[in-house]
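Recall that a protein's primary structure is simply its ordered list of amino acids. Everything else, from secondary elements to tertiary packing, is in principle encoded there. The following example makes that idea concrete.
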Amino acid sequence: MKKIIILTIVSILVLPIMLSAKVTYLSYEDYKKLSKNERTKYLADLQSNLADNQQRKADALAQKENLNKEIAKLKTDISKVEAEYNTVYNEILVKLNVTPDSKANVQAKINWFKSKFNSFENLSDNELWKARKDFKAVLNEYNNYRKTNEAKMPDFRKDFSDLDNKIANLDTGIQNARPKYYEEEYTVQAGDYLSKISGYKFIYGDPSKWGIIYRANRDQIKDPNIISKDQVIKIPRGLPNSWKVYRGEFLWKIASYPEVYGNGAKWPLIFRANKDQIKDPNLIFPNQVFEIPRD
């Protein structure tokens, strides 16, 4: 603002003088070469030009005075706004129960998160997918920190906004690299059972799908009615492209599982895709691994 005002003043003072320079000034030698009438006219032009410049100078000085008054007023207004800002800012800090000294802590924490998320940005989408657990751990820590009073200080709104954008881009990269089938992990909590876990919104939101979890964890769950606190179980996502046979299974039963086809009548699809190891569709064996054809 100050630079604009100064440039305005300069233009007011200089431009009129430049515009009024209509007289071609002569040296003394050239002046002596003029005729009497030419000298008279030349002197008249000089006087007119001088009077014009004096008036312009007076106008410019008057405008300069007005601008100086305006600058003084703006400085007063700025001081008032700064005082109001400081009052509101300090009230916010009191409400948050933090002090200006906390700014260094917040900046250090922001720098730490920025460094962590930058390291994830340097990964390819596939590498980022493999590192998604680490990313989620840092993200959880970030989200928890955002809830603290320190993180609510007005000074860092843009910093957190930039981090939010960075996180959104990383999440998009993870989603782009997500395979059609993968498994997440869930740690069993006290009071959990398979249908309850399956009913959680962040799992399947449907208690009847507990069998999907059971079948993915038959290596560690012998009885679907018995699971233990702190047990880490796999949560299938998407549709598998292969299937490991367990005792008691047959092609129709495998095809009927919702994570396979959800329709036992589609068992021939599995049979035809695995003829190299299935000689008789009525005879399959535990631990065989079959391809599950997908469109």
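Confidence is low (pLDDT under 50) at residues 1-21. The two ends are 65 Å apart (CA to CA).
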